Amino acid sequence: MNRIASSALLNLIEQTGLDVATLAEGLDEADLRRSRLTRAELLRHLRVLARGAIGVPPSVREDMPELYWEGWRLLALRLQAETGEDLDEAIWFAIHSVVPATLLWLRVYRQSQPQLFSMTSV
Questions:
Q1: I need a labelling partner for 10 at 20 to 30 A (CA). Which of 57, 58, 63, 90 fits?
Q2: Domain map of the chain by residue range?
């Protein structure tokens, strides 16, 4: 994967994470379980985010070691379920732990290593 594609992937991860944070804002666990539409949309976004994180090349991962890349891989496996308690727990854990931590570190890296996010070839 070339650098521009890696940058696009990081930007997709960041934007999707922000979308998840927006959808989950003010949502409690009971609301999550009751709302089929919000839950479905959160799950769709989390699956995109997890696939994106898995697709980040090892060289880029090495430049961003604080991100929990293996956690995203494991979360992606749990998000494959169609229904059930495990899926609900995975969604809840993602929106309240994994996504906020990922967004925090992406912000840090965007400031300290902006070239990782640059979509230009220079």
A1: 90
A2: 3-116
